[in-house]
Amino acid sequence: MGQSSAPVPAGPAEPAMETLVSALRGKAIRPGDDAYDAARRVYNADIDCRPRLVVQCADVADVIHCINFAREEGLTPAVRCGGHSVPGFGTCEGGLVIDLSGMKGIRVDPVRRVARVDGGCTWGDLDHATHAFGLATPGGVISTTGVGGLTLGGGFGYLTRRYGLSCDNLISADVVTAGGRMLTASATENPELFWAIRGGGGNFGVVTSLEFRLHPVSMVYAGPALYPLEKGAEVLRFFGDFMAGAPRELSAFFAYLIVPPAPPFPEHLHGKTLCGIVYVYSGDLEEGERVTRPIREFGPPAFAVGHAAPYPAVQSMFDPLLPKGLYHYWKADFVDSLTGPVIAGHVRYGPEIPTVNSAVHIYPLDGAVHDVASGDTAFAYRDVNFVHVLAAVSPEPGPMPRYREWVRSYWSALHPHSAGGAYVNFLMEEGDERIAASYRGNYARLAAVKKEYDPANLFRRNQNIPPSA
Ligand SMILES: Cc1cc2nc3c(=O)[nH]c(=O)nc-3n(C[C@H](O)[C@H](O)[C@H](O)COP(=O)(O)OP(=O)(O)OC[C@H]3O[C@@H](n4cnc5c(N)ncnc54)[C@H](O)[C@@H]3O)c2cc1C
């Protein structure tokens, strides 16, 4: 990646900057430093911001110094954990990046089945730590995604139908607020803040530590089944019906995909566009083989396998397709069910998926997610059954305008049949109305919590909820 030639906007005076830098344990990186270009970049190569300063925080004290400095000097902070925010909220133009990714401590208590996780950990870090004890908590399906961003927006993956959203498994969190104070948020301490951070994203402060409930998960039964494109409508109908009756131990997502040129896929399918179901059963392995057999037999498929695998291996199986530095454009929505018009939209646009890195995924959002009422946490869409994401991903910027058009047309065909809002962690910068729609009945309460903990809207580089008037 080349050094940007654009000037960095003017920032605080040098003495103030020196005072901050001398107070830090972590690294402060400024324009002109050798490390600057790498430090300013995030996962999505389409984001090209030039912050005034990137602080790679070593500890909570560094975070407090950064927040106080940003507030006093009028700099917008951007908070980064895994850096996966597709709109690029982990960096900013002319502001201060609070990069937590060096804060990686994890303590697992196998007796209480609880993990205490520093704010910079990825799901790969956490799965690795808990797997040693035969335990896990629901996380995302790519191991390099940050625990911080994913959990604060809600978070779902292969264990969600059984154990709920990532945020449903949060017991407490340490939050450094806009005022530079560290608070603990839990059911008993600062409960409104605790309610808000379970879905409300990074609006309320910097979360330096998260405490999660863990569950006994070690080996899982998993595999993909791929089907010819002409079976798309039938597979979508089968997927919708099958998931409605499936036990909670099963998670599966529907996908349109270009088959990667790698095992386990046979050579004759490499590079072919197909549809498929990727499934993971987290209960008894023999039962998993039995429960998932209809997926492997439907159609018949063009290819299907199933096998036992360690949970962290399944959690990282798609990592090679999605390294840092690709160009991303995503759109998404929640949907109640896979009705005729929804299926028709997928069948029309899904087969045009442009690259092997791109993704059309339909994730189930039922089971344990529905056990929690929509008003019990900030994550509002507890009554829908699916979330779909349409993601164009390219190694080159050149074709992105065409790919963006494909995503927009696809999304426009589906949106009228959606539940109205989207998962905030799948939103790009799509405007205030879209954010409000995504929080629906919880929005006013979130704005009130924002007023209490961040009245000047210091933390605004996110799916922003301005403080109520
Ligand atoms: C390849 C890929 C796969 C994904 N898969 C899934 C999936 O399976 N399930 C799912 O639910 N989502 C998934 N997502 C979406 C993901 O949840 C969001 O992109 C999320 O924002 C990523 O978190 P992060 O910490 O990596 O991002 P970052 O860019 O580091 O952070 C994004 C924003 O979150 C907030 N934030 C992050 N950490 C903190 C913190 N410690 N304190 C305060 N605020 C913080 C800040 O506002 C920050 O700007 C995926 C994204 C990608 C790119």
| Named CATH architecture of the largest domain | 3-Layer(aba) Sandwich
Going by helix content, strand content and strand pairing, the class is alpha+beta
What's the tally of helices? 15
Q: At the first level of CATH, what is the class of the largest domain?
A: Alpha Beta
Give the CA-CA distance, first to last residue.
43 Å
What summary fits the major beta sheet?
8 strands, antiparallel
Overall number of domains: 3
* Averaged pLDDT: 96
Computed CA radius of gyration, to the nearest angstrom? 22 Å
**Percent of sequence in beta strands:** 15-25%
Q: What is the CATH topology classification name of the largest domain?
A: Vanillyl-alcohol Oxidase, Chain A, domain 3
What is the number of strand segments? 19
Helical fraction equals: 25-40%
Bound molecules: flavin-adenine dinucleotide
Label the overall shape: globular
Sequence stretches where pLDDT stays below 50 over 5 or more residues: 1-5
Description:
The protein is an alpha+beta fold and 469 residues long. The chain folds into three domains: 15-99, 2-Layer Sandwich (Uridine Diphospho-n-acetylenolpyruvylglucosamine Reductase, domain 2), CATH 3.30.43; 106-216 and 441-453, Uridine Diphospho-n-acetylenolpyruvylglucosamine Reductase, domain 3 (2-Layer Sandwich); 219-426, Vanillyl-alcohol Oxidase, Chain A, domain 3 (3-Layer(aba) Sandwich), CATH 3.40.462.20. It is 28% helix and 22% strand. The chain has helices spanning 14-23, 36-40, 60-73, 123-131, 147-153, 160-163, 191-197, 232-245, 285-291, 293-297, 311-315, 340-349, 400-414, 432-439, 443-453; strands spanning 27-29, 53-56, 77-80, 96-99, 106-109, 114-118, 135-136, 170-176, 182-186, 206-213, 215-216, 219-227, 250-258, 273-281, 303-304, 307-310, 327-335, 359-364, 386-394. The strands form four sheets. Strands 12, 13, 14, 15, 16, 17, 18 and 19 form an eight-stranded antiparallel sheet that branches. Helix 8 packs across helix 12 and helix 12 packs antiparallel against helix 13. The longest helix is centred in the C-terminal third of the chain and has 15 residues, at 400-414. The radius of gyration is 22 Å and the shape is globular. Mean pLDDT is 96; it is low at 1-5. Residues 42-43, 78-86, 89-90, 100, 119, 140-142, 145-146, 148-150, 152-153, 155-157, 201-202, 206-207, 322, 425, 461-462 line the site of flavin-adenine dinucleotide.
